[in-house]
Specification:
alpha+beta, 6 helices, Hypothetical Protein Pfu-838710-001, disordered N terminus, 8-stranded antiparallel beta barrel, 44% strand, 229 residues
């Protein structure tokens, strides 16, 4: 594998392969302390990064056209800006989020689809075919980040995210909270990250998460998409 994320589209809408481990956790503070204590795990260096606040809005048409096209549509806002992402709903690997995704940076989150001229905007307009989008739910996350660095590689090969997440309905009613550990591959070697995840699971008593955040949001809102055609 040459890269965990490989660009396949234009700069205004980048297609990538997302590889990510999602781990269920009941004591986020214990994992934080463990990471702060272990600055080096095997050959990998663990380095803290600035925290982020994420506000994600998941959208679809009233008749679930995005979902039936095998995608989840997410609009993300952070202090750094906004972006729209189409994530494939099907993973290529059992027990691991290994999916295709397309992301497009946005100049403005308001009326974003009108201003989205890249790959995501074009694909969403094609799928929706004029049917308006509506908010399914929103996800508000406080994310503490740790870079995973291999001294033999110039760039970080991964990121560990400690997430404290709240799900809210389209009417902004709180539906529930979730703690989650996510380890995302940013580059090779993937085997080193797999060993890191195994160490995290063993040392911090973590298990693979049974659902991704999109599935959790659907369950908490009581929304039931139609079966695939």
């Amino acid at each position: 594998m040459s890269s965990a994320k490989t660009a396949t589209s234009s700069p205004t809408g980048t297609g990538t392969r997302e590889i990510e481990w999602q781990l269920a956790v009941t004591d986020l503070e214990a994992v934080r302390r463990w990471l702060e204590k272990h600055k080096k795990i095997g050959a990998l260096l663990i380095q803290p990064r600035p925290r982020k606040i994420l506000r994600d809005t998941y959208l679809d048409t009233g008749d679930w056209r995005i979902f039936l096209a095998d995608f989840a549509l997410r609009l993300r806002e952070t202090s750094d800006g906004a972006e729209a992402t189409l994530k494939s709903l099907r993973s290529a690997r059992e027990g691991l989020a290994d999916r295709q995704e397309i992301t497009e940076p946005l100049p403005e989150p308001d009326d974003w689809l009108r201003n989205a001229h890249g790959a995501v905007g074009a694909r969403v307009r094609e799928i929706a075919d004029g049917v308006p989008l509506k908010t399914l739910f929103t996800v508000h996350t406080k994310r503490e980040r740790f870079a995973v660095h291999n001294p033999l590689h110039p760039a970080d090969i991964g990121e560990i995210a400690l997430d404290e997440t709240e799900f809210r309905s389209a009417a902004n009613v709180s539906l529930g909270r979730l703690q989650r550990i996510e380890v995302e591959a940013l580059g090779p070697p993937l085997a080193a990250l797999e060993r890191l995840v195994a160490t995290l699971q063993e040392q911090c008593d973590l298990e693979p998460a049974p659902e991704n955040k999109f599935a959790v949001g659907l369950r908490l809102t009581g929304l039931v998409p139609p079966p695939p055609m």
